[in-house]
């Protein structure tokens, strides 16, 4: 068994390393959250006056609804 002093040094160094990695991870996470908050705030100010969906989005939604109707008809066994 290794001497007690070397085990103490190894355990202290390991805890310090884990603490550093955890600290840097927390720091990076906080920075990422700040970045996302800024992106969301910027996006909110860009789309402040765009309450209604654009015409292209409405057309896409209508197309998706039509595809769903066709798939439901196929699942029910109805031929077109």
Radius of gyration from the alpha-carbon trace, in angstroms = 29 Å
Report the major sheet.
Answer: none
End-to-end Cα distance, whole Å, is 80 Å
Structural class: mainly alpha
Average residue pLDDT: 87
DSSP helix fraction: over 70%
Sketch the topology as an H/E string, one letter per element: HH
Number of strands: 0
- Which shape, going by the Cα principal axes? elongated
Low-confidence stretches: none
The total number of structural domains is 2
What proportion strand?
under 5%
* Helical stretch tally: 2
Which key features would you list for this structure?
elongated; 2 helices; 2 domains; mainly alpha; 80 residues; single chain
Description of the molecule:
- The model has no long low-confidence stretch (mean pLDDT about 85).
- With about 80 residues, this protein is mostly helical.
- It is elongated and about 80 Å long.
- About 80% of the residues lie in helices and about 0% in strands.
Concise structural overview:
This protein is mainly alpha-helical and 80 residues long.
Task: Outline the fold blueprint.
Elements: H1 4-46, H2 55-76
